[in-house]
Amino acid sequence: MSMRSCDVILAAGGSGSRFGGPVNKVLTELRGIPVLRYSLDLFGVHPAVRRIVIPCRPEDREAIAALAADWREAHAEEAAEILLTDGGPSRQDSVYNALLLCREPLVLIHDGARPFADAAMIDACLGALETYPAVSTGVPSKDTVKLVNEAGEVLQTTDRSRTILIQTPQGFRREELLAAHDRFRGTPVTDDCSLMELAGHAVKIVPGSYRNIKITTPEDLPG
Question: For position 170, which CATH number holds?
Fold first, then answer.
């Protein structure tokens, strides 16, 4: 396979406690379509994507499997293969489980609750991986960001011109990411780029979009 071929991990194994309600937020309908379906429609037909691996909770597996089967039935044979695996107690565990099913030298990781990514972001990540072992989409912060202590007292005001709000997709060379997961297993991090940073790898930022929001609470759902 070309080095630009990749697998995709769609993270869908979270509890969604901040979203609330009886249904996983990735299965919630947005304009009549399940949120996760937007990501399948994007990544599943991209020419570089060979397979999509979805880590999910046992209680969501049947619904996500049915969604994936419906999507595959509606698309040509050349569309990406879709695999499901068990989610873990943390996002890090879920991604690791999915990584073990990936086969391509490059892996993209995307939040299943982030329905408005686009093909330009995929292409930008894959392009950056020709030079860097890790890449993330992101947008410049529009707001001033302050670091505070546990008492809520300001410790430092960051330089807004150098502050980036991190999004997904993020991209990685699979072997380097697996090594970082193995080395820092159990270390609390909020994304896989943080693991690569801990391992001493440079992480490249490529343009995301302010439209590329993550559905975290019901208020995030566009009307």
Answer: 3.90.550.10
Kind of pairing, strands 81-86 and 49-56?
parallel
Residue 71 CA to residue 99 CA, distance in Å, equals: 22
Residue 88 φ/ψ region, left for φ over 0, alpha for ψ in the -120 to 50 degree band, beta for the rest: beta
Query: pTM value?
Result: 0.92
pLDDT in tens, 129-176: 999 999 999 999 999 999 999 999 999 999 999 999 999 999 999 999
- The DSSP code sequence of 106-119 is EEEEEETT-TT--H
Radius of gyration of the CA atoms of the chain, in A: 17
Q: Is residue 159 part of a domain?
A: yes
Q: Is residue 77 part of a domain?
A: yes
Other residues' Cβ atoms within 10 Å of the Cβ of residue 221: 16
223 domain-assigned: no
Identify whether the C-beta of residue 201 lies closer than 8 Å to the C-beta of residue 181.
no
CA torsion sign for 196, 197, 203, 209 is positive
Gap between the Cα atoms of 96 and 78, Å rounded = 26
Q: Domain tally for the chain?
A: 1
- For 207, the domain range is 6-218
Q: Write the DSSP symbol of residue 139.
A: E
Task: Tell me, yes or no, whether 1 lies in a domain.
Answer: no
